[in-house]
Amino acid sequence: MSQALTQPADETLTAQSDESVKKMLLILSKATLDNVYACFILANGARMEGIESEIFFTFFGLEAITKNKMERLHVATVGNPAMHIPTMLGGLPGMEAFATSMMKKEMEKLDIPPVGEFLELLSASGVRLWACKLALEMFHLDRSDLYDDLDGVLTVGGFYERARGQGTHLLFI
Fold first, then answer.
1. How is residue 92 annotated by DSSP?
2. Where residue 153 sits, what CATH number does that domain have?
3. Which of 18, 39, 63, 117 has the fewest CB atoms nearer than 10 Å to its CB?
4. 20 vs 134, which has greater pLDDT?
5. How far is residue 142's CA from residue 144's CA, in Å, rounded to a whole number?
6. Is residue 162 one of the residues assigned to a domain?
7. Rounded to whole angstroms, how far apart are CA atoms 131 and 93?
8. Residue 1 placed within a domain
9. Closest by alpha carbon to 61, among 126, 158, 116, 131?
């Protein structure tokens, strides 16, 4: 049996907490409303804690920074076990729009800004925003199709280069 499994929990926590988090790199690969907000809230929370934060938008995550799509993101109702509804019901016409509308109303009650405004807040707080070069080419998008305050377009290797350094953590969403 591994030592981590047999150690008391407090010793394991002490051993893991010796390295402080200095930088969070988040990879967003899906632009469902719940994934986008989870990513944005984590990036914003890191900045509020004084931790450097960067988001790499790849594959369908690019929709979160595509000008003509960013404000029309949806909640996935099919294949989402957290919806607690049968898959067939989630696939009925109007269910995705209904779930999206309900989620947006709840977020509005909590004063969570829409995607475009949230991107402005992230950028202003120092969160670096990067588009994936391969995904951009694959979806036949130009830099002009994307959010204006984007920090740039990177290859995967360029993004990983930004991960160098002690205290850097990657999180895939």
1. S
2. 3.40.1260.10
3. 18
4. 134
5. 5
6. yes
7. 32
8. no
9. 131
The counts of H helices and E strands in the chain are 8, 5
In a domain, 8, yes or no: no
Is 4 inside any structural domain? no
Q: How many folded domains does the chain comprise? A: 1
CA dist., res. 20 & res. 49, Å (int): 12
At residue 47's C-alpha, the angle toward residues 76 and 136, to 5°, is 50
Q: Is residue 10 predicted with pLDDT exceeding 90?
A: no
User: How many residues are recorded in the chain?
Assistant: 173
CA 62 to chain centre: 11
Please tell me the pTM assigned to this model: 0.82
By percentage, how much of the chain surpasses pLDDT 70? 80
Specify the amino acid at residue 92: L
The per-residue pLDDT for range 99-129, each reduced to its tens digit, is 778 888 888 899 999 999 999 999 999 999 9
- Domain residues for the domain of 147 are 26-172
